[in-house]
Amino acid sequence: MSARDGAAGAVLLAAGRSSRAGTAKALATLAGEPLVVRAARTLAAAGCAPIVVVTAAPHAAAIERALCGTPLGYVRNPDPDRGMLSSARLGVAALGGTARRRPVVLSLVDHPHVAASTIAALLGALRGGAAAARPTYAGRGGHPIALSAPAVAALLQADEHGTLREALRAGGPTLDVPVDDPGVAEDLDTPEALAAAGVTPGRGG
């Protein structure tokens, strides 16, 4: 796992228990491809490197097996119940020195239809001076979120008992970037939503 000159790093958050969805979302499949693999592939297609995947029990080993053979880094969150901020901080720290002094994309596994061009648009907004950027579709905010280097530093310094939203706010205002990509606003938190999106439940373990 190495950083390319000028590339943004990425943290793929896959440590959630997926209790509302009733299945391990990272291991659920779309067109036969696990969502975690699809998300990592999209980040790589957008030019992100390195990419760190944050996992947790009970699905960590299965997620890492699904990604076997891909040039990714991994870090396990020993207590994911602390919230998404804890996973984001672990992932950013695992990017390493030079990588975490660059922009970072925070991505979720349950937005499988997000296009690489959307991530490129967010990174373009950072180059234009935004502290952070999130995509919007039809007026709805979504994911992933791109952070400038100063916003990454603020996230690492944030109160560990706070929320990811509070940490992002401390890093400066987030710019909304309208995109023609309905995948950014997907909400795949229930079995019904997964089925409507064409996603097949996965096996944990």
Count of alpha/pi helices: 7
Give the structural class: alpha/beta
Poorly predicted sequence stretches spanning 5 or more consecutive residues: none
| Strand proportion | 15-25%
Instruction: Tell me which CATH architecture applies here.
Output: Alpha-Beta Complex
Helix content: 25-40%
Inertia-based shape? globular
Radius of gyration, taken over Cα atoms and rounded to an integer in Å: 16 Å
The first-to-last residue Cα distance is 26 Å
Tell me the number of structural domains: 1
Describe the model.
Strands 1, 4, 5, 6, 7, 8, 9 and 10 form an 8-stranded mixed β-sheet that branches. The mean pLDDT is 89. The protein is built from 7 helices and 11 strands. The protein is an alpha/beta fold. The protein has a single domain, classed as Alpha-Beta Complex (Spore Coat Polysaccharide Biosynthesis Protein SpsA, Chain A), CATH 3.90.550.10.
